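Bench notes, afternoon.
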Amino acid sequence: MRNVTNGALGQWADTPAGKLFLDCEAEQIRKQMPETRQSEQLLWLSAFHCEAPVEALSVCSKLDKIPPNYNAIIAHEYELPFFDNEFPMVISSHVHEYTAEPHRYLRELARVIEPEGQLIISGYNLFNILGVGLRHRLYRRAGSPVYPTHYLSIHRLKDWLRLLGFELEGGGFFYYLPLTRSPVILDKLRWMESAGNRWWPRASAGFTLTARKRLPGMTPLSNRAKLRLWAPAPQPALARVTQAGLTEKHEHR
């Protein structure tokens, strides 16, 4: 994964709008999580310097991306140091947008999630009114470009997850405020967050998707097949051969 955290992306995340964006994202992720999952061992992967929205095991791809007094595992996003089917839930925040091979990264997530486990993944919703402003802000920052290496639309991401054996269960949109540096303006416009969820949800700057890892199952039997399966076995019929060579069946009365 590109080390953009120490450059423009990290600078943007420290602005009032960036912090509020990540706070709204964390709140949306918590809404997507069942309460029963919050007490289990979770895996959290993020492209930002931010804490997990719930207690989880964090993974960073580079040593210099780990803030002081922050517990994390250093690992490559394509080779996570975990067994297959190890976690009941994995939360991924924007990592797929800053990796050279997003499909390979998603396959690795599918590997470490246990059967019937859940994946919550968040990303930018760049192709909308607020997303245009977000792209502009990301490009303007000094340092290396921080525009996602492989931006995936919501529909493309859904298709890839289905191909990996996930069943989509839900999702949400968040952050409808202008990308301003002024905390005063943000405070005055906080009402837009609740209004956006109600009136123009797809105009948000961010989104989350929730999916469940399904095991390949057998083809369900149709009703006709079930009747054939449980029907009694056919009984042999008694017959005799007549002089004309014809077969006559004797019916049991």
